[in-house]
TrEMBL record:
Pfam entry (one): HATPase_c
GO cellular component: membrane
Protein source organism: Chryseobacterium taiwanense
The protein's name: histidine kinase
InterPro entries tied to this protein: HATPase_C_sf, HATPase_dom, His_kinase_dom, Sensor_HK_TwoCompSys, Sig_transdc_His_kin_sub3_dim/P, TPR-like_helical_dom_sf
Length: 664
């Protein structure tokens, strides 16, 4: 059953992205589009062909996809309908790597397309609504996507009863229902899709994927014989096109069927064919899932050497192993496999790697406690040193007072001896200056010690805060998140065998709430510790942060200049938190429509400038405010031995910050 869930996740991932499905006769179709674009023909034909080519290459060659999209945009000038279509394909281009931008493009496309009362406009609006639901799925969950399809997409095209796009939307709705264990409802929508596609589009790619979706629905219910009927129909459609990228999905469907029927030996050559196609068309995650199924089958067949090689290849390729949970699983599997093979030393090596990765959270907790104890000890030592310096200061004050009294008495006694009076007066002035200078030096020493103490405490607090953020994030994501996901899967499996979807609607509503809770928990974990910072560095993390705050009425221009990738992680984290606080304040309080963020590095100095065109604030409000956010901001700037300047009026606010990246 777990393999069925994995297959469904991949197939859903594909179908949620594969809008404007490419015909099965793929190569002639793409060649014809290229010929239209390169020829000097009708402007509208060239533009629409460029749109389709951009969509085709968006998953395999993003630079080429962008090139065709920009070429099309140049031809949309003074053509409102083509411009409305451009916004749709702009959303397609951004769908996989920037869902916020994609969502804005789809909404703009819907607004502009609604001005045209044509059949094609209605279909594009329906797809744009569907894709908008896809962009919001991780935030809102599957119920939101389901509601968007039912209330927005399908009503736009239902009046065109026999259209391919309506069949496509029905089968997309079906696979979402399958994933949520609504098998009967999913089957009904698959039947609706088949009624349209088999009658009017018997050789279409949409019909091919509907057959695969129907097969997966039956496999998920352990009804292998029913699944095979649809798998055979899909095979007939794809068989004439051995060069099509869709072959990879057919072979994964066949792999799923053979595993469901426990025909493991037969599954191995099918997996090899799937690996060939998925590798050829850069379907990396799908290729790795083929390899993982291959490993599992080889292990069951006791072909341990081949199983081990397959698992090591998965680890080296990194598509699956980039996730720490997957990596731990692979380590554990390699350890168990080597034990069965009689390789105790190698088994121990993989077990140690597994344990090291698993124990990393505990190690971080121990380090945090050590830092707390060390900071407390250092603080006590410094307080003792300050007390000694204060005692020394009082002693010197007493000495100065005694000398002053002595000089005053001597001047009265020797009033007539002017020369001696002047002599002793000079000595008095000299001693006083020396004492004053010593006092100044003493005060400076005390101030320096206090500053170092404050800096040390700030450092310990900030480092402890970041470690705690990371610990909580990992606990939420790896621990509680994984447990809740497992509970959800177990409930789904149990309910499919014991409950009736029509009679037990309340249970399925609660199951949907559990799914939403898992998504929200993982969203909170990502906010606590930015994964893009840990995986890709400061510049990428700051760019993601800017994209997060972009709104319909707010544009953020991020300009990175010479940011080094080798900055220590604690420095990167503090710079990230500073920028995060600056952006949050600007978005929340300024009312600006444009924000410019510039981050640059010059040797040991890091410069941050943020400007907005908002309403500004009074000059003295920054000093008077007791905002926790501004206090944290000042602490982080001080920690990096930096300085901050704020300039604000009714035309906007500018904040300049200079930091030392080698601050202790």
């Amino acid at each position: 059953m777990n393999r069925l869930l994995i297959f469904l996740s991949i197939l859903i991932s594909f179908t949620l992205q594969a809008q404007q499905i490419i015909p099965l006769n793929e190569k002639p179709y793409i060649d014809s589009l290229k010929n239209v674009v390169s020829a000097k023909g009708n402007t509208q034909s060239i533009t629409e062909s460029a749109f389709l080519l951009s969509n085709y290459f968006r998953n395999t060659d993003s630079s080429l996809s962008k090139k065709y999209l920009e070429q099309a945009k140049k031809l949309t000038k003074n053509k409102p309908y083509l411009l409305a279509k451009y916004y749709y394909f702009e959303g397609q281009y951004n769908l996989d790597h920037d869902k916020e931008k994609a969502a804005l493009s789809y909404q703009r496309s819907i607004k502009e397309l609604s001005k045209f009362k044509t059949e094609e406009s209605a279909f594009l609006q329906a797809l744009a609504w569907y894709n908008y639901g896809v962009t919001q799925k991780n935030k809102e969950g599957y119920p939101f996507l389901l509601k968007t399809i039912l209330e927005k997409s399908i009503p736009l095209v239902e009046k065109y009863e026999n259209n391919k796009s309506l069949g496509f939307l029905y089968t997309q709705l079906a696979i979402i229902l399958t994933y949520n264990a609504e098998f009967e409802k999913a089957g009904n929508y698959n039947k609706k899709a088949l009624a349209i596609l088999e009658k009017s589009y018997p050789y279409s790619a949409e019909l091919f994927y509907t057959y695969l979706n129907s097969a997966s629905n039956f496999c998920y219910q352990a009804k292998g014989d029913e699944a095979k009927k649809f798998l055979d129909k899909a095979e007939k459609l794809i068989q004439p096109y051995p060069e099509s990228s869709a072959n990879a999905f057919y072979y994964y469907g066949k792999t799923l069927y053979l595993i469901t029927k426990q025909r493991n030996e037969e599954a191995l050559p099918v997996i090899q064919k799937g690996i060939f196609y998925s590798t050829k068309f850069s379907q990396n995650l799908l290729a790795q899932m083929f390899y993982f199924n291959k490993y599992d089958i080889l292990k069951k067949l006791k072909r341990y050497d081949e199983a081990k090689k397959t698992l090591e290849d998965i680890l080296a390729e990194q598509s699956l192993a980039s996730d720490l949970n997957n990596k731990k699983t692979i380590y554990k599997q390699l350890s168990l496999l080597n034990q069965e093979m009689g390789n105790p030393k190698e088994a121990l090596l993989w077990e140690q790697k597994y344990s090291k990765l698993n124990d990393s959270l505990n190690t971080e907790s121990v380090k945090l406690e050590i830092n707390k104890i060390e900071t407390k000890f250092n603080t006590a030592q410094k307080e003792k040193k300050i007390a000694n310096l204060n005692a020394e200061k009082k002693q010197r004050e007493l000495e100065v007072n005694k000398k002053n009294s002595y000089l005053m008495g001597l001047s009265l006694a020797l009033l007539l001896l002017i020369i001696f009076f002047i002599f002793f007066f000079i000595i008095y002035r000299k001693n006083k200056k020396i004492s004053e200078q010593k006092e100044i030096n003493l005060q400076q020493k005390i101030t320096d010690i206090k500053q170092k103490e404050e800096l040390s405490l700030t450092k310990a607090i900030l480092e402890g805060e970041e470690r705690e953020r990371e610990r909580i994030a990992r606990d939420l994501h790896d621990g509680l998140g994984g447990m809740l996901a497992g509970v959800k899967i177990n409930f789904s499996t149990w309910s499919s065998n014991h409950l009736n979807p029509e009679k037990d609607k309340e249970f399925y509503r609660i199951l949907s709430q559990l799914d939403n809770s898992v998504g929200e928990l993982r969203h909170v974990a990502r906010n606590l510790m930015p994964e893009s910072l840990l995986n890709f560095g400061l510049e990428t993390a700051l760019n993601d942060l800017c994209d997060f705050y972009i709104r319909k009425d707010l544009d953020i221009d991020f300009q990175p200049i010479n940011i080094e990738k080798k900055l220590p992680l604690n420095i990167q984290l503090n710079i990230y938190r500073i920028v995060q606080e600056l952006l949050a304040n600007a978005v929340k309080h300024s009312g600006a429509s444009n924000i410019l963020l510039q981050c640059s590095q010059s040797e040991d100095n890091f410069f941050i400038t943020i400007e907005d065109n908002g309403k500004g604030f009074a000059k003295n409000s920054a000093e008077k405010t007791k905002s926790l956010g501004l206090r944290n901001l000042k602490n982080r700037v001080d920690y990096l031995k930096g300085k901050m300047e704020i300039s604000s009026d009714n035309e906007g606010t500018t904040i300049n910050i200079e930091l030392n990246t080698h601050a202790d």
